[in-house]
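Journal club prep — side note

Before the paper discussion, L.F. wants everyone to see what a predicted structure for a comparable chain looks like in token form. Sequence:
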Amino acid sequence: MQWTKKGAHLLLQVRKKVLNNEWEDVFRKMYPDFRPIKSVKDPDIIQEAA
């Protein structure tokens, strides 16, 4: 299997967004009801999950 130039470019764009912690904001614009922001950004909730 080979990547097309367009497919490789799109994959790298997504990878960059994920590594720069920008992907959730982009995803939330497309799907506003994705999940409450508090559940992701609240340190207490993050500690409970760990």
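L.F.'s comment for the group: The mean pLDDT is 80. Keep this in mind when we get to the figures.
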